[in-house]
Specification:
The protein has 18 helices and 20 strands. It is of the alpha/beta class. The chain has a domain of 341 residues: TIM Barrel (Alpha-Beta Barrel), CATH 3.20.20.480. A 7-stranded mixed β-sheet has the order 1-7-18-17-14-12-10. The chain has a 4-stranded mixed β-sheet with strand order 3-4-2-11. The chain has a 4-stranded mixed β-sheet with strand order 9-8-20-19. The longest helix has 22 residues.
Amino acid sequence: MPREGSSRAGRRASRGGGGLHQVPWRAVTNPYHPIEVLSEDQLRMIHLASLRILAEIGMDFLHPEALAILAEGGGQVEMGTQRVRFDPEWVMGKVATVPSSFTLHARNPEHNLSFGGNHVNFATVGSAPYSSDADRGRRTGTFEDYCNFLRLGQTFNIIHMFGGYPVEPIDLPPATRHLDCLAAFVTLTDKVFHAYSLGRQRILDALEIVRIGRGISREQLAMEPSMFTVVNTSSPLRLDGPMIEGLIEMARMGQVVVLTPFTLAGAMAPTTIAGALAQQNAEALASIALVQLVKPGAPVMYGGFTSNVDMKSGAPAFGTPEYTRAALAGGQLARHYGFPYRSSNACAANAVDAQAAYEAEMSLWGAVMGHANLIMHGAGWMEGGLVASFEKFIIDVEMCQMMSEFLQPLQVDDAEIGLEAIREVGPGGHFFGAAHTLERYESAFYSPLVSDWRNHETWQEAGAPRADQHANRIWKQALEVYEEPPLDQAVREELEEFVGKRIDEGGVG
């Protein structure tokens, strides 16, 4: 394995540790009612339109094994084609076996995650071909950058999991890249991670690596979901062969499949949000039915990624009003069927600037108030997913931490109301020196990671630093305090033996 995965000395960051103001590691739940942008009648219209799409138009499954499974299971495969049509009652019967909640098991049991209900989990950016920082600019992804993003994801408590390779390490051979990347997840982190459904063999390798990392048997792995994959449909109305192979192997082993249609309104879906949602829902239901045919009860997540394109250029747009409404509507649809829900923190900005922040904030609000259980690309996403930015990673961590604090229950009791403190200060006084204030001095309010709350004069005296400059300093500081999580030596040796053997075999042909 490349040496970049080796350990770095330093202290584990905690709230205030190493100067990093962190929220503690915790399970985040959403105490608020979801925002529902669809009326009951509108929700039913989209549901029924989705079933009509599957019954009357159908969907293409570009793999003979999927066609055989669907034909045997009751799908209507059109002779001589890859088109499958579905009876509405059959679809609803199949998706009824999806569990409404599940647990994803991490190498460190303290980092196990719950999905479904009101649980919220933030993941890193995934799948960017480029990385960037203020010092070296935009560049093709490398394994060094890849490992540094893993270290950041391990260091920050608000990052619950890894949503794919934060950046694609183009400097590694494609045939064996997945082996080095997955092994780095095990050695550099102890959190839940993702494997790509790019054919059968990559998933089989990933299943063995996650099994080794947890030190469990295949039987236990099949009973304890420990890894997830995202399966994107090739919208409109197609599911390609490599994705299908990954879906089948993940389902057979009881691992989590996140079905996410890539429905950009105006490009791969109708140029209306209602039409794009109907198509998104149809593609998701048909693909989820395939998972349940492979293994009834296999854990599945409904993914919403509907957005719009710039009609002048055709470029994807994210963090728009349309994107946010679609995220909220996707949550309604997922809850309608009882599925756990995935959304994203996305933006289309090309620089770590105001646009990047306000589009990401719009995306986060849509995901959180749509009651997403998994928020993909929670930290680092730029340029519509083309770039993993180190500075944006830190700014997103700040926003996710603030969102986590916002979701904490509001305490209201006699001590919190502080009637005696109000009596002590009285009319016209101030509370800076009150006993009630001093008792809560360290924990009264959220402590910012990036936000600069100095007044204008002291801010100028400090050199008037911008948020992206703060972020540049913080990600470097976080790498200094990173500490590689403990890994049993026997597990490390078994992992190195497996990866070395698979690399010698040539990986994926």
